[in-house]
């Protein structure tokens, strides 16, 4: 993460699972909110998680010699030198077929000021439920 810019450092949550991700995006996000976490199943990969109610869409980002690639059958393969470049590319894309729009980063530094106890225990309750959906 040392080569990454401020955006990635602010939205990178590390080794949180998909259930905790759902709760965070449900409680603190809205449609288009997104965060980055470690993949639970592919070592070295990251997951770009985006809320588009009632789902949390997860896109796997795979490291390669050229940088990072978004692994999704509906999105053309393209390599980016950094995660930040990849994210900014898809944020700026008008519409990628089947991809949830990335409109607002879920900045963990802002969450710390919000309700640290709730974020750490993930005991959040909301009237709107989100479901995990691996892409």
TrEMBL record:
Domain SH2: start-end pairs: 11-106
UniProt record, GO biological process:
adaptive immune response; innate immune response; regulation of immune response; regulation of signal transduction
- The superkingdom of the source organism is Eukaryota
**Cross-referenced InterPro entries:** SH2, SH2_dom_sf
Which keywords annotate this record? Adaptive immunity, Immunity, Innate immunity, SH2 domain
User: Is Cytoplasm among this UniProt entry's keywords?
Assistant: no
Indicate whether Coiled coil appears among the record's keywords.
no
Put simply, this protein is called SH2 domain-containing protein 1A
Protein species of origin: Liparis tanakae (Tanaka's snailfish)
